[in-house]
Structure prediction request, 170 residues.
Amino acid sequence: MIIELTRDQTAVVDDSDADLPLLKWCALFAPTKAVGRQYYAVRGIPLPNGKKRLQLLHRVVLGRVLGRELTRSESVDHINGDGLDNTRANLRLATASQNGANQDIRKNNTSGVKGVCWHKHASKWVSHIRINGKQKYLGLFTSLAEAETAYLAAAALHQGDFQWTPLNEL
Prediction:
């Protein structure tokens, strides 16, 4: 089902969440350092003190799937990277580290390959990966393909199903 949002955006939910489009949802622009989708569906929940708290659509949907409210420390990962695709098959519970692993390449990436950049002083490609919030050096390589292979091998080993690949893109 389609939910019309502000800013000419739309969100998607399954038919089993047919009551959610009846509520007023807005598009939240969430700037990130990644190239991917930067919108999420949110709504304001009035509090007794007159203020509002934001409720994120993806947290509502995953909470329904799990049969409980999510804790503050739990993250929701959009498997395909699209923050407006809130179908149940596209949402999964994740740690902050796992959620970060499934992010698109950064805007300032010049190699076109996640985890790889040019090392000016060595005149070689360097590969890094972030594991549990810490950057791990994977080595220097003479070709971009070698550096990419090193990154993808490390991502498969350390990030498993949460590793981002270009196939995750829409």
Remarks:
- The beta strands are 2-4, 10-12, 26-29, 39-46, 52-56, 75-78, 91-94, 116-119, 124-131, 134-141.
- The first strand starts at residue 2 and ends at 4.
